[in-house]
Amino acid sequence: MPDTVRVRGEAAEVARAEAQAVLSMLSDERRRVRLADVVAAVDEGMVEGNDAAALGELLELGLQTGRLRAVYGPEGEQAVLGLFRRLPQGQELSQSTKDLTEALDALTGRTLERVSVHSVGPGEYGVSISAEGFELVLRLGRSGARISSIGA
Predict the structure, then answer these.
(1) Phi, psi torsion values for 143, nearest 5 degrees
(2) How far apart are CA 119 and CA 127, in angstroms?
(3) Nearest alpha-carbon partner for 59 in 37, 34, 78
(4) DSSP 3-state assignment of 14?
(5) What are the residue ranges of helices labelled H in 26-140?
(6) pLDDT tens digits, one per residue of 97-135
(7) Considering the entire predicted model, what is its pTM?
(8) Quick one: which H or E segment has residue 9?
(9) What is the C-alpha to C-alpha distance for residues 80 and 125, in angstroms, rounded to an integer?
């Protein structure tokens, strides 16, 4: 299955430990069951579907807050980062970055006329880049970089 992600080695150890740490703090039974399923899938060495999505959310939070690095060290953080990039959220983030790079390539060789940044909301920013009659508008935030519009 294309949505199945293998989890092994140090990434599996850190993912399991992090999921168990969060599981131990949860009181909502529905969330406890969901996270227990994630732990079981990690123990089996494969995550898919809802388990992959839940694991991605958990790891993304740990990466963003710096908790994974603080608790499991740089090696644990790097192992989990490699796993995160293979999960749906990580793949989506990688694709949005690739799309952004391709859009920025349109500016190659053009003279920049204006760059502006404005706040859209908490943790979200808009960036407008104008170059020789070409304008690129980007959204940057916690969920990655996205192209809002491209125009001439």
Answers:
(1) -90, 10
(2) 9
(3) 78
(4) helix
(5) 29-44, 49-65, 67-86, 88-105
(6) 888 888 888 888 999 999 999 998 888 999 999 998 888
(7) 0.74
(8) helix 9-25
(9) 27
